[in-house]
Amino acid sequence: MTIMKKLFQYIAAASFAGLLVTACSPDSFDGANEAGKPTIEGTDFTLEVDQTTNTVRATVAEKTGQYPLWYIPAVTENQNDVYSTLNTLERTFIYAGDYQIKLRIGNRNGVSDAEVTKTFHLDNTMINFGPYEKALAGSEGKTWRINRAEPGHMGCGPSGTAGSEWWSASPDEKADWGVYDDRITFTPDGKYVYDPGAGGTVYVNTGCSVFSQYNTNDGNDFMAPVNTQEATWKFEAKGNDVMLTLPAQTLFPYISNDDQWNNPSFRVESIENTAMTLIYDNGGIAWRFMLTSLEEGQSATPAGFPGFDADADFNMFKNCNYEITTYYAHGGSWEGYGDPAYTVNGNKFTIQYPGETDMQWQNQFTFRTDMVAAADQQYDFSVVLESSTDIPAATVKICELDNDDAEKTLLLYNANVSLKAGEPRVISAGNLTGIDVNGVKIVFDFGGSPANTDLEIRNIVFKNHADGGGDAPFNYDDPANAWKEVDAEQAFNMSFWWADAGWQQIGNPEFAVGEKTYGGKVYTITASDATVSEWQAQNAFNTTGLAVAGTDLVDFSCVVIPSVDSPRATIKLCQVDDDDNTLIYKNDIKLVKEEAQVLRFENVQLSKGVDAAAVKLIFDLGGCPADLQFTVTDITLIRKAQ
Asked: How much is the pLDDT for 80?
């Protein structure tokens, strides 16, 4: 306990000094007040543990004028204590065991006397760096950059911390220092490439002796011209830390000190498929670097339906009991491999398949649950699948526990689901007709998977449609989806009509077409002007040959995502040359910032019953605020002749 108190006192003093320097003046600060110390009462934090990578993430709600003080005591002599003042603490550990994480709250008057303590357990000692290597380099190599948009993407702090207590960069803070165009590439064979980008420079701390001939900024940081450099990389274990190590004198987007230049070995604070935090700590100071493998403007979550909320109370899978069974075989004789290795972390299941499989049903991962369904109810389902290799034809099936008879018991049967390496895919189905069962079985089959395939099944949701949570879109890959050809051929003409409050026409918005691995194209409308009323911001996809018969029943869905809140929007699907012959008209759509909203309409028919040689799809954003970016994807139109 004495060590912990010293650590808290040290980190609190450093943070308090920072507050004095950056936030207070002699006129506004009269000194600390013991009576104003915060209390821990009512404070709690969330704790997530990823058993696959031994990464621990603790988060406490941000409160103005307060900061957290985290502490994780070492459990063995060759480990290091962990402490931080970030609102979210992330740390990756080497050793299995039981750990405690402690939280106090500080403000300018001191630190809370009490603390919140939680315990977590790590199942395995990490001696296999495979998950880290795949996250870092993928199967064909990955390129990373400093994540300029993320608060705290660079920073520094006391040794042993998360490297942000003394300085933490705000988004784009170093835009003038040639650091954001630098790229570092890691390949699976251990090759490292540093590219200084268009500026051709590396960013160097003023205290470095390296490149001193360019240090002409009177004690300030400086930029030094450099060329592309090739080197190597490897992961190592050091005490309880995972280290990413480069050879001496290897270039990196920022050279913090001579020690980093001569011994560039970074502690891996956290690592995921598209995000990584590295800490360089020479024992005197810790430097923080947050990197991303996404390109500028690219989202970590692809546009489209993300699946239902797996943490919501309506998710029956969240609280069900289940048993996992596997079947893993290959060849025409169906010779079994035995069970694959897998780990369970809440609603995330990571599976390792060392051998290849040849055909459907040779790679089954099944959840036998105690969930109950009824024939007079409707159900919704979603899941996220991600594979490290291409799998051309996976299968998802939901049925009765001990009866696979498709005609009598099948809730969902979705075969030929393609998976692209490293690309998460959402599988969803809505309004499934229920069956009377006292046990629901969810089967995933990855038959046809190559050797050395790692698979992740996450965010499984099975829910009663009546319990809420929104709609699922129709299946974009349904062979009957007539809009797939419109996407593939871009078989439409785009037209716009935008007006001001006096109904005088104004300039058109920008329109862009992007690619999407699953769910067709991504269409983005970007406008800087605000509008007031309905029909003052019309954007129409006029198809050039998508016909709908007057007698057809049509299922239609799409996913829309706005960049800002907007009080209303309208969707209309009608005949190109006759706005009154309408399939869909809905004008009470409320847009919520960055929220993917499914617009779904089932069994609609042309209002006049007249054949439409071509239809148009209108999104009217009239009433929108300025600087709106509106994304549309997963457009699906299925015609069903009566």
From this structure: 78
pLDDT at position 301 is 65
pLDDT at site 296: 80
Closest C-alpha to 536, from 414, 624, 438? 624
pLDDT digits (tens, 9 = 90+) for 313-336: 999 999 999 999 999 999 999 999
CA distances, 115 to each of 1, 64, 286 (Å): 12, 19, 25
Residue 512, beta-bridge partner list: 524
The residues, ordered by sequence, that sit 6+ positions from 136 with a Cβ below 8 Å of its Cβ are: 142, 186, 233, 244, 271, 276
Determine the Cα–Cα distance for residues 510 and 494; give it in Å rounded to an integer: 11
pLDDT of residue 300: 61
Low-confidence ranges of the chain (pLDDT < 50): 1-29
Please tell me the distance from the alpha carbon of residue 45 to that of residue 59, in angstroms, as a whole number. Answer: 5
CA distances for 577 relative to 555, 574, 582, 615, angstroms: 21, 9, 11, 8
d(Cα 477, Cα 462) in Å, to the nearest integer? Answer: 21
Residues with Cβ within 8 Å of 226's Cβ and at least 6 positions away in sequence, in order, are 196, 200, 201, 202, 251
How many Cβ atoms are within 10 Å of 114's Cβ, its own excluded? 11
Give the whole-angstrom CA distance, residue 589 versus residue 558: 13
Residue 196, amino acid: P
Question: Tell me: the pLDDT tens digits for 254-267?
Answer: 999 999 999 999 99
Q: 598 forms bridges with which residues in the sheet?
A: 559
Enter the tokens of residue 381. 């389902």
Letter for the amino acid at 400? E
Give me 7's structure tokens. 């650590």
- In whole angstroms, what is the distance from residue 636 CA to residue 481 CA? 6
300, two tokens: 């970590």
Task: Give the 3-state DSSP-derived string for 246-257, with helices as H, strands as E and coil as C.
Answer: CCCCCCCCEECC
**DSSP summary character for residue 349:** E
Fill in the amino acid letter for 403.
Answer: N
Hey, what are 375's tokens?
A: 């024939």
What is the pairing mode between strands 191-195 and 183-186?
antiparallel
Q: Going by C-beta distance under 8 Å and a sequence separation of 6 or more, which residues neighbour residue 178?
A: 196, 197, 199, 201, 202, 203, 223
CA angle centred on 397, ends 384 and 324, rounded to 5°: 75
Q: Is 471 helix (H, G, I), strand (E, B) or coil?
A: coil
The answer for residues whose C-beta is within 8 angstroms of residue 313's C-beta and 6 or more apart is none
Give me the residue label for tokens 């990389």: 233
Cα 585 to chain centroid distance, Å, stands at: 33
Q: How far is CA 476 from CA 67, 190, 557, 562, 575, in A?
A: 46, 39, 9, 21, 22
Distance CA 46, CA 154 (A): 25
Under 8 Å between Cβ of 90 and 242: no
Three-state SS for 27-84 is CCCCCCCHHHCCCCCCCCEEEEEECCCCEEEEEECCCCCCEEEEEECCCCCCCCCEEE
| Secondary structure element (H or E) that encloses residue 23, with its range | helix 2-23
- Please give the Cα distance from 46 to 58 (Å, whole number): 6
**Rounded distance between C-alpha atoms, residue 594 and residue 543, angstroms:** 28
User: What per-residue string of b and e applies to 578-608 under the rule 16 or more CB within 10 Å gives b?
Assistant: eeebbbbeeeebebeeeebbbbbbeebbbbe
| Torsion angle, alpha carbons of 511, 513, 516, 518, to 10 | 90
